[in-house]
Automatic annotation (TrEMBL):
E.C. number: 3.1.3.25
Molecular function GO terms recorded: inositol monophosphate 1-phosphatase activity; metal ion binding
Cofactor: Mg(2+)
GO biological process, one term: signal transduction
Membrane-spanning ranges: none
Organism: Pavo cristatus (Indian peafowl)
Protein name (database record): inositol-phosphate phosphatase
Taxonomy, superkingdom: Eukaryota
UniProt lineage: Eukaryota, Metazoa, Chordata, Craniata, Vertebrata
Root EC class: hydrolase
Binding site for Mg(2+): 76
Length: 133
């Protein structure tokens, strides 16, 4: 049984995100710009709830429709990826390609269509990879 939502229409989607560890002016401008892009695309809502783990659990349980973040480390994302996929969701890279756990970026959603839509709308916030020294 699928636990994630089946929402593919952005106007019905509750999207979760987190700010990430970088708070310099250029990063904050990109972060806020991504929220603005999703709202202009008519997202039902975009929320920052203060915990990437909780946000990913909300997605897996069907309490939210999508999640994206830059700066999320592989140890934060590995188990959540398995749980979301087992719940019927999709987890991809923000480029729209396959998830790269070391890239510190992710889009997850109840449907592949929603994940791809978000990946196409947002701009990348660059973080160092987890496998770089």
């Amino acid at each position: 049984m699928k636990a994630t939502t089946s929402i593919a229409d952005i106007s019905k989607a509750l999207i979760l995100t987190e700010i990430g560890p970088k708070r310099d002016p250029a990063t904050l401008k990109l972060f806020l710009g991504n929220i603005e892009r999703l709202l202009k695309a008519q997202a039902h809502g975009v929320r920052v709830i203060g915990s990437s783990t909780l946000a990913l659990c909300h997605l897996a349980s069907g309490a939210a429709d999508a999640y994206y973040q830059f700066g999320l480390h592989c140890w934060d994302l590995a188990a959540a990826t398995v749980i979301i996929r087992e719940a019927g969701g999709t987890v991809i890279d923000t480029s729209g390609g396959p998830l790269d756990l070391m890239s510190c970026r992710v889009v997850a959603a109840g449907t592949r269509e929603m994940a791809m839509f978000i990946a196409q709308e947002i701009q990348t916030i660059h973080y160092r990879r987890d496998d770089e020294n």
